[in-house]
Amino acid sequence: MKSKKLLLHTCCAPCLSSVFESLEKNYEISSLYFNPNIAPSEEYGRRLSELERFSGERDFLLIKGTYDLKSWTCEVKPLRFLGERSERCWRCYRIRLTNAFETARERNYGMVGTTLSVSPHKNAEMINAIGQELGRKYRIEFMAADFKKNDGYRRSVELSARYGFYRQNYCGCIYSKMERDKNSPWNKKFIKKI
Fold first, then answer.
1. Which whole-number Å values give the CA distances from 149 to 29, 110, 118, 193, in the listed order?
2. SS3 breakdown of the chain: % helix, strand, coil, rounded to 5?
3. How many Cβ atoms are within 10 Å of 191's Cβ, its own excluded?
4. pLDDT digits 0-9 by tens, 46-86
């Protein structure tokens, strides 16, 4: 018997796959796709399309948030040269998790979680600290987790292959994409800043 309605902030179908598998027996899961950080817009659409397909196959509610890249960029631009796992990411997590808690309050969910911690590039401690703080603020329980543990990330790779999911090679924001290209003018400027 499923005990609680869980609103699960979801960055992409590959990350959701193993998290969904581990939680579906105990929770009534709805997925929230709110990721204004993802650029370019074609990438955003591609990830959303994969998530829509997964939602159709596994029969869960998918809630689509507003895509507002301009507002997100204004919020994190001063931190653009800090690199992945920095305050830039902390600010991005906060933006997305705040929206998840606001959506949960509007739709009467008793618990909020996120798939972000399944990635080996994400700091679960940082994500959980933000989620717990917001949980206290909104008086909604936060599911603190490190979904990459216990082979969670490996399982997401296996399930992605099984479902034929597109797997991106960067976090999602334009800054992380440019940082991956070691020969780009951006990366040379980024290296000078650090």
1. 20, 25, 8, 33
2. 55, 10, 35
3. 12
4. 999 999 999 999 999 999 999 999 999 999 999 988 888 88
Edge to edge, the sheet with strand 61-64 lists 61-64, 27-33, 4-9, 111-114, 141-142
Say what the pTM is. 0.92
For 141, the enclosing helix (H) or strand (E) is strand 141-142
How would CATH label the architecture of 4-193?
Answer: 3-Layer(aba) Sandwich (3.40)
Tokens describing residue 21: 């598998």
CA distance 103 to 191: 38
CA distance 7 to 5: 7
Q: Which two tokens stand for residue 99?
A: 């929206």
**Is 96 buried (19+), middle (13-18) or exposed (0-12) by CB count in 10 A?**
buried
Tokens 């020969």 correspond to: 183
In the numeric block, the tokens 């993802």 are attached to 38
Alpha-helical regions (H) of 66-147:
69-76, 87-107, 124-138
